[in-house]
Every structure is written in C-alpha cells, then in structure tokens.
Amino acid sequence: MKFLTDFGDEAVILPLFVVAVIMFVVTGWRRGAIVWGFGVGLCLACLVLLKFAGLFWAQQFGVEGRAFSVSGHVAASTVVYGSLANMLLQPRKRSWFLALLPPLLIACVIGYTRLVLHAHTPEEVVSGAVLGILGASVINASLPEVPVYLVRFCVPVLLPIVLLFHGSVLEAEPFLQKMFRISYFSADQSLGW
Question: What's the 3-state SS for 116-174?
C-alpha cells in the first residue's frame, strides 16, 4: 500500500505541478497553463486552509487526540492526476460525466491506501476526495482545448518526474502543524484569544 500511496505524496505532486506548468508555457499553451496552474494552486491552497481550520477547531474546543485533517494525499493526487488524465483522455470535447471517472478512480485508490495505512479516518479521506474531485471538475470545465502536440509531450515529460520523486516523503503535515502553532500563539498573544 505504501508504494501506491507514495504517488500522492506532496514530494511527488509539487514537482509534477511545477514541471507541468513549465511544460505548458514552454510549448505555447499559456492560457491552459494559467487555468490549470491557478485551478490546482487554488485547490492546494484550500487544502492548507482546511487543515488549518481542523487544527484551529481542535485548539479552540480542546479536541482529544488528533485534529481533523483533510487527506492531502487524496485531494492533491485527485486534482493533479485527475485533471491531467482528463486532458489526455478528452483533449477536445469534454463530457462532464466522463471527466468525473479519472478523479474518482484516483480518489478511491489513494483513499483506500490512506485508510489501510491508518493515516486518515474515512471522513478525512472523503473530504479530501470531494475537494480533489471538485477541483478536477472545475479545471476540466474551464480549460481551453488541449493542443494535440501537447498531449504527445505529457507522458514522456511528466512520467519521469513522477518516477524520479516516487518514494520521497515531504513532511508537510508536521510543517503545517508547526506553522499553525506559531501563527496561533502569535495571534493569541497579540489579540488575546
């Protein structure tokens, strides 16, 4: 299961995101790079905000144990891989129903691995899946037509990035928790929460 879940780690997703945006710009698909980059970036920003909201809720209401944490692996891999799969499978005409299938499949696979590894609760996995599927669907609806030449570049350029970083782990959760604690206690001291 760890092998599969590592495809959703931020250590793979973030370099893949950056290389994809650069590839879109270099190949001349600037509008697509803006739409896709903004859509994925917005989804990842929402993910961070939801994680902070879970930490804030736990801090404010004294939740015992671990704070609610939306699954970043599920949300990030669903929006990135799901939207890229849609670009490859439906570069011209886009069916909204067919566009749901790749993100849904990715969310199920990565979500299952997160549950088996006891990394998240079912609620955290489902919330990550909803965020990722919603993000991939909005991106799919907003993207201009994908040029045929770009479809040819995607797999040979992006697959090596995924394989290169697969197995790496970016300790995003502890970093976000540390950033939250710093900002929360700074705000607590200055605002008197």
Answer: HCCCCCHHHHHHHHHHHHHHHHHHHHHCCCCCHHHHHHHHHHHHHHHHHHCCCCCCHHH
Predicted confidence (pLDDT) per residue in 105-139, tens digit:
999 999 999 999 999 999 999 999 999 999 999 99
Expressed in angstroms, the distance from the first to the final Cα of the chain is 42
pTM of structure: 0.91
Compute the distance between CA of residue 47 and CA of residue 55 in angstroms, rounded to an integer: 13
Q: Which residues of the chain have pLDDT under 50?
A: none
Helix, strand, or coil (residue 66): coil
Q: What is the pLDDT of residue 98?
A: 87
Q: CA–CA distance from 105 to each of 79, 162, 175, 189 (Å)?
A: 12, 18, 29, 45
Distance, CA of 132 to CA of 47 (rounded, Å): 9
The label of the residue with tokens 């970083």 reads 165
